[in-house]
Amino acid sequence: MKRTWLLFSQSVTVLLAVWFVLITLKPDWVQGVQRSAHGITLLQAPAADPEARANGSLSGAAQKASPAVVSINTSKSRLKKADQQNPWSRYFQGDPDEDNSAGSGSGVIVSPEGHILTNNHVIEEADDIEVVLSDGRRAQAKVIGTDPDSDLALLKIALDKLPVIVLGQSESLHVGDVALAIGNPFGVGQTVTSGIVSALGRNQLGINTFENFIQTDAAINPGNSGGALVDVNGHLIGINTAIYSRSGGNMGIGFAIPVATAMSVMQDLLKDGKVTRGWLGVEPQDMSPELAETFNLPSNAGKEALRGVVITGVLQNGPAAKAGVRAGDVIVQVNNQTIGNVSELLTSVANLKPGTQAKLQVWRRQGLTEISVTPSQRPSPRPR
Known about the structure:
Layout: H1 2-25, H2 27-30, E1 33-35, E2 41-43, H3 50-56, H4 59-65, E3 69-77, H5 87-93, E4 100-109, E5 115-118, H6 120-123, E6 128-132, E7 138-140, E8 142-147, E9 152-156, E10 166-167, E11 178-183, E12 191-202, E13 213-216, E14 228-230, E15 235-243, E16 254-258, H7 259-272, E17 278-279, E18 282-286, H8 289-294, E19 309-314, H9 319-323, E20 330-334, E21 337-338, H10 342-350, E22 358-364, E23 367-373, E24 376-377
Parallel strand pairs: 10-15
Antiparallel strand pairs: 1-2, 3-4, 3-6, 4-5, 5-9, 6-7, 8-9, 11-12, 11-14, 12-13, 13-16, 14-15, 15-16, 17-24, 18-19, 19-20, 20-21, 20-22, 22-23
C-alpha cells in the first residue's frame, strides 16, 4: 500500500511538472481546453498566428491603405452668388449664411504635399470643403482643379506627416482579382468592404462623358464616392464613383475610375488647372446591323467585319467640317486605332493633341478614304 501511494504521488508530481513546463513554454498548447463558469468544457482556438492571418486575411491591405482615405464634408449656399445681393432673393429663399445644404463623400491622399483625389460630384458647387483624416485631424481643402467629364477633382490640404496611398497598376487587373473598397458610407465612419473585380472597361453607362470603369461587387454606398478601390497589397487601383441601384443602396454593382485615368487627369489639373482634350465637332451614333446594311458596310474585311461609328451631324466651321468630314461618313479608325462605338471614338479623339494633325479612316460611298484633321481643344462642359 505504501509503495502504491508513493508511485501515485510521484506520478502526480511528474504530471504537474510537465503541466507547469507547458504553461510556461507553450501556453498556446493548453489554451484549447477551458472550463466555463458553469462547469462546461469549451474549446477555444489558440491565438492567431500573424503569418497564418496574412495568408487568409485582407487586414494587411486594409491597414496599409485606410490611413490615406479621408472623409470629405461639404456645404454650399442654396443661393447663387449673383442672388446674394438681391434682397428679393434673400426674402423668398432665406439668408445664405443660415440656409446651407451639406454633403459628404470620401477622398484619397495621393501625395505628401497634401493632394487629394475625389469625385467632382462630391465637391461640386461647394462653398466650404472640410477634410477629416482617419487620425482625427481636420483641414480646409483648396480646389486645385476639376474635370466634370471624368467626374474627378483634385484638392489640397496644408497638413504635415500625411499618410499617402501607394499607386497600383490598373492596367494589369484581371476579372476575378480581389478588391477592397474604402470610404465613409452614409457618414457612419471609415468602412472597408471586399469583393472582386467583376468586369473591366465598362462604358456607355451614361454616368460620365468619358467612361472606362472597373466594375466591382465590393459594397459601395452613398458616401463612398471618391474613396479608394485597392488590391490585396493595399495599392490604389481606382477611385470609387458610382453604383447601380434600384433602392439607393448597394446591390453588388459598383464602378471605379481606373488609377491610370485618375493620374492622367491629375497631371493635367496640376499643370493647367483643367484637362485638355481633343475635339472634332461631330455628332456620332453607334453602328447597328440596320445602319451597316444601309451604308453597305462590308460584313467581312480581312479577318473581321468592318466596324465604325456613323456621323449624323457635323458642326459648321468645326475641325471635322474644315477637314471634309460629312454627315453619313462612318469613322473606322483614328490614328490607326480601330473604332467600334461612340465611347471609343470620344476617348480616341480626346487623347489627340489639339493643334496636331491626325488621320481618320472613313467609310464613304462603299469605299475607305483617309482624311487629315487638326483637332481643336474640347470646349468646357456647361455648368449644370
